[in-house]
C-alpha cells in the first residue's frame, strides 16, 4: 500500500489541509527559496530554505488540526502498525537506542547517573528503560496514550500528553531527552523554552534529529508529512541556542548536547 496515498486522497477531499510557512521560527524572515521536492507515494513533499538563516522547512505543510488528525490515524499505519508484537518491538528498539545515547553521552563526558532524566516524546519508554538501568530516575510523556500505557505497565513513570504533561515533574530534570521530536513540532520555540524552564541550572539537554548531511537519514521516508524541519548540525544548533541554551558538542547525525545559557534568563526570549 502506497504510504502517501491516504494523505493524498484525504487532502483531495479536504480532510487534510495544507498551509505555507509564513515566517522562519529561527530568524522571523519571511522569504524562502525552493530547496527540493520529494515523493511520498503520490504526494509531493516540498522543502524550502530560509533566505536569511538557511533553515530548511516543509512548505506547504499540514495545518495544526490536520497534523493532529494525521498522528491519530495515518501516522500509525506509516510507523508499522499497532498491537502487542509491534509494541514489544518498539520497546526493544527504544532500549537499543537508549543504550546508544548513554554511550554517546559518556563519550561527551556528560554526567547523568543518579539524576532525573525526562524524555518528551518517549513513545513506549524503551529509551528511558535504558537510562533506568544506568541508575537514573526517569519520567516521560508522549502524545500516544497507547505507547505510554505499555511503558507504564513495565513500571516506568510515563504520562500521556505533550507539553501539558510537564508540570508533573516536581523537580527540575538533570537531563532532558528530545530524540526525534524537534523535526515534528510546529512551534520549536515554545517547546525549547518550556524545556529550558524544566531543566536544572546545571542540567543538560540532549537533542537528536535526522541530519540532512547524515547518509543514513537520506532514505525514502525522510521527507514526509510529519517532518516539518530538516536540520544540519548548524541549523539545529541555531534553533536551540536561540531559546536559552548554549551548545556543548554535537555531530551531523544530528546529535547535540546543550546547557542552559546563564546569560539568557528563563522566559526572556520572545514567544
Ligand atoms: Zn531563518
Name its key features:
alpha/beta, binds zinc ion, 271 residues, seven-stranded mixed beta sheet, 13 strands, globular
Account of the 3D structure:
- By secondary structure, this protein is an alpha/beta fold.
- The protein is 30% helix and 26% strand.
- The chain has 8 helices and 13 strands.
- Strands 8-7-6-9-10-13-12 form a 7-stranded mixed β-sheet, sandwiched between helices. Strands 2-3-4-11 form a 4-stranded antiparallel β-sheet. A two-stranded antiparallel sheet has the order 1-5.
- Helix 4 (84-107) crosses helix 5.
- The radius of gyration is 18 Å and the shape is globular.
- The relative contact order is 0.13.
- The model has no long low-confidence stretch (mean pLDDT 90).
List the helices and strands and how they pair.
Elements: H1 5-12, E1 18-19, E2 32-40, E3 43-50, E4 56-58, E5 61-62, H2 64-72, H3 74-79, H4 84-107, E6 116-120, H5 126-132, E7 137-142, H6 145-152, E8 157-160, E9 173-179, H7 188-198, E10 199-208, E11 229-230, H8 233-241, E12 245-251, E13 255-260
Parallel strand pairs: 6-7, 6-9, 7-8, 9-10
Antiparallel strand pairs: 1-5, 2-3, 3-4, 4-11, 10-13, 12-13
Helix pairs in contact: 4-5
This protein binds zinc ion (ZN).
Zinc ion binds at residues 24, 26-27, 29, 50, 52-53, 55.
* Head-to-tail CA distance between termini: 41 Å
SSE order, as H and E? HEEEEEHHHEHEHEEHEEHEE
Unreliable stretches (pLDDT < 50, length at least 5) are none
The small molecules bound here are:
zinc ion
Which radius of gyration do the C-alpha atoms yield?
A: 18 Å
Largest sheet: 7 strands, mixed
Coarse shape: globular
Mean pLDDT: 90
Structural class: alpha/beta
Q: Within the largest sheet, what's the order of strands?
A: 8-7-6-9-10-13-12
Q: Tally of extended strands?
A: 13
**Range of strand content:** 25-35%
Please report the number of helical segments.
8
Task: Please give the share of residues in helix.
Answer: 25-40%
Amino acid at each position: 500500500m502506497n504510504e502517501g496515498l491516504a494523505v493524498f486522497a484525504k487532502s483531495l477531499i479536504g480532510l487534510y489541509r495544507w498551509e505555507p510557512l509564513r515566517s522562519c521560527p529561527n530568524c522571523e524572515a519571511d522569504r524562502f527559496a525552493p530547496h527540493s521536492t520529494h515523493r511520498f507515494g503520490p504526494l509531493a513533499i516540498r522543502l524550502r530554505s530560509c533566505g536569511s538563516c538557511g533553515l530548511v522547512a516543509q512548505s506547504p505543510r499540514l495545518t495544526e488540526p490536520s497534523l493532529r488528525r494525521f498522528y491519530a490515524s495515518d501516522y500509525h499505519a506509516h510507523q508499522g502498525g499497532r498491537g502487542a508484537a509491534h509494541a514489544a518491538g518498539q520497546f526493544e528498539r527504544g532500549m537499543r537506542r537508549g543504550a546508544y545515547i548513554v554511550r554517546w553521552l559518556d563519550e561527551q563526558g556528560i554526567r547523568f547517573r543518579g539524576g532525573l532524566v525526562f524524555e518528551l516524546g518517549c513513545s513506549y519508554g524503551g529509551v528511558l528503560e535504558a537510562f533506568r538501568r544506568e541508575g537514573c530516575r526517569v519520567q516521560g510523556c508522549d502524545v500516544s496514550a497507547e505507547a505510554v500505557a505499555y511503558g507504564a505497565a513495565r513500571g516506568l513513570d510515563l504520562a500521556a500528553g505533550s507539553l501539558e504533561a510537564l508540570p508533573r515533574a516536581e523537580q527540575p530534570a538533570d537531563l532532558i531527552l528530545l530524540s526525534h521530536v524537534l523535526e515534528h513540532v510546529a512551534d520549536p520555540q515554545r517547546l525549547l523554552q518550556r524545556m529550558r524552564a524544566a531543566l536544572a541550572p546545571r542540567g543538560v539537554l540532549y537533542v537528536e534529529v535526522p541530519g540532512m548531511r547524515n547518509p543514513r537519514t537520506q532514505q525514502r521516508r525522510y521527507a514526509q508529512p510529519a517532518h516539518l524541519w530538516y536540520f544540519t548540525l548548524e541549523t539545529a544548533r541555531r534553533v536551540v541556542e536561540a531559546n536559552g541554551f548554549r551548545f556543548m558538542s554535537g555531530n551531523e547525525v544530528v546529535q547535540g548536547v546543550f546547557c542552559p545559557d546563564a546569560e539568557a534568563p528563563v522566559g526572556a526570549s520572545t514567544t
